[in-house]
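re the bet — no i am not wrong, look at it urself. input seq straight from the record:
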Amino acid sequence: MSGVTYDVFKHGACFIGNPLLKFEEDHYEHMVWYVLNNCPEIEPYIKKVREDLQTKYTSNYRLDKVLRKEFHGWFKKEIATIKYNRNQHLHHDLEALASQPLLRVKVYSGCFIKDVRYQTIE
């Protein structure tokens, strides 16, 4: 995976078997939020949106729910604004995280990570 610098893209897995293509519409929002919320490079953007939302929502539960639901759309627009309106160069990994992920997911029967074999249970 040459050129990759964000840890979120460095999975280090060697997949086993032919991929099965699935459409994960039901869990899509959760998957997108999980990736963005667990990427240290995105933390400043999440912090900014959280601070903005704190003026609207006093309940942390409601704030977190709105943040999970709306952050990706805001983030995508923010990165586009930075790139096209401000003409700033952005890291390609940051642009990839802001782009709309595919609903189509490749599912493998297993993988190797650091010489350990993992298999899915069917």
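see?? Residues 23-106 form one domain. told u. also Helices lie at 28-37, 43-53, 60-85, 92-98. so pay up
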